[in-house]
Amino acid sequence: MKTKFLLIAVLLGLSFAANYADAQSGVNIYQATLRESNQKTPEISTQEMQNILEEKSATVFDPRSSKEYAIDHIPGAINIAPKNTGSKAHDSVISEIGRMVKNNKAAPIVLYCNGPICGKSRRVANKLMAAGYTNVRRYQLGIPIWRILVGLTEIELEGILYVKEKDQTAVLIDARDYQQFKTGTIPGAVNLPLNKVRPGKNEDEIKMAKSDGRLPVKDHNTRIIIFGRDGSQARALAEALAKAASFHNVSYFSGDFEILHKAVK
């Protein structure tokens, strides 16, 4: 895990080197792009991606596999994993995007995938341009850099089941209040009640959770999965951890607790 993030950090430094060459440019890390040459579609920065998602000014597509998407994706993104393989793999993707945007060739579209060296978003973007779409952009920095800079992703039920089986280092956090937590939770989960997190009060409960071992303070890149009564409760705590506590790999489950509880044994 640490090696993975070290490589990403090195890649991040190399990718952004050009952006900081001119100290007078005023570009910060959230406004940076790869500045790739000879690309058919323009890139957007992390800040632009955040604005697009907040304003819902474009449809954001994730062309990675359904398993990758389930494990973590940018909140608000739609998965368009290929339904077949080989030379025709992307034809189904283009058709699905067309269906989602009602075949509006001028519809604003954003694509992302697994970071600077991932070619999926480029290939789909180029296919869309060839099919006549005129407003296609890429967040080529992708999910690894999004995690580092924003820290917040969404996880599906399938992803939680996969992580629980495969990643023994992951931390599961129940955002419900303590009384609800005591009545039953997910095996291995710890309780960090959202109702005790006080914005503007130095996040007292988060500080306590760092001290008592509920939060992995030795490695802020540890995978943290948050669930709650519902998706809004889980996301609120996830945002607090990503912003106030500087954890860089926080995912939240957008479904209801009952759904998760029935599925996870």
Q: Any overview of this molecule?
A:
The chain is an alpha/beta fold. It has two domains: 16-146, Oxidized Rhodanese, domain 1 (3-Layer(aba) Sandwich), CATH 3.40.250; 151-263, Rhodanese-like domain (Oxidized Rhodanese, domain 1, 3-Layer(aba) Sandwich). Helices cover 40% and strands 11% of the residues. The protein has eleven helices and nine strands. It has helices at 2-16, 46-55, 66-71, 89-100, 120-130, 142-149, 157-166, 178-182, 204-212, 231-244, 257-263; strands spanning 59-62, 78-79, 109-111, 136-138, 152-155, 171-174, 190-191, 224-227, 250-253. It has a five-stranded parallel sheet. Helix 10 (231-244) links the parallel strand 8 (224-227) and strand 9 (250-253). Helix 4 crosses helix 5 (120-130). The relative contact order is 0.13.
Care to give the gist of this entry?
It contains eleven helices and nine strands.
> What do we call the CATH homologous superfamily of the largest domain?
Rhodanese-like domain
Distance between the termini: 26 Å
CATH architecture of the largest domain: 3-Layer(aba) Sandwich
- Can you write the helix and strand succession as a string? HHEHEHEHEHEHEHEHEHEH
Please outline the major beta sheet: 5 strands, parallel
Strand-residue proportion: 5-15%
User: Which CATH first-tier class of the largest domain would you pick?
Assistant: Alpha Beta
Strand order of the biggest β-sheet: 5-9-8-6-7
Query: In which range does the helix fraction lie?
Result: 40-55%
The assembly state of the depicted protein chains is single chain
Radius of gyration using CA atoms only? 19 Å
- Counting structural domains, the number is 2
Shape: globular
Q: Which structural category fits the helices and strands?
A: alpha/beta
Spans of at least 5 consecutive residues whose pLDDT stays below 50 are 14-24
CATH fold annotation of the largest domain = Oxidized Rhodanese, domain 1
The total of helices stands at 11
Rounded average pLDDT: 88
How many E strands?
A: 9
